[in-house]
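Tokens in:
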């Protein structure tokens, strides 16, 4: 089993691509800020056309799974993706 690690920038790109497609906007119209909190865990605040929304960890992983498939041709499952916090948030994928 090999491991793929996505950087914080790649996670942000994954969320931008995912939401741009879902909301039918340009990728450049999507802004994302990732965070981690002891009570809420991993979240992403997203701004699209002046409106903000929060994504929870499962929504972030959904975007990461689509990104892995489209950019790396990797088919992974939710159980294969783990978000980690060191100096930045990363996604560790067991494939």
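Residues out:
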């Amino acid at each position: 089993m090999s491991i793929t690690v996505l950087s914080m920038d790649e996670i942000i790109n994954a969320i931008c691509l995912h939401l741009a497609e879902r909301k039918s906007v340009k990728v450049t119209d999507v802004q994302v800020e990732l965070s981690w909190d002891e009570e809420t865990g991993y979240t992403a605040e997203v701004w699209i056309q002046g409106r903000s929304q929060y994504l929870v960890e499962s929504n972030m992983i959904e975007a990461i799974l689509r990104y892995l498939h489209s950019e790396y041709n990797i088919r992974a499952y939710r159980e294969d993706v783990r978000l980690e916090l060191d100096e930045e948030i990363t996604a560790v994928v067991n494939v």
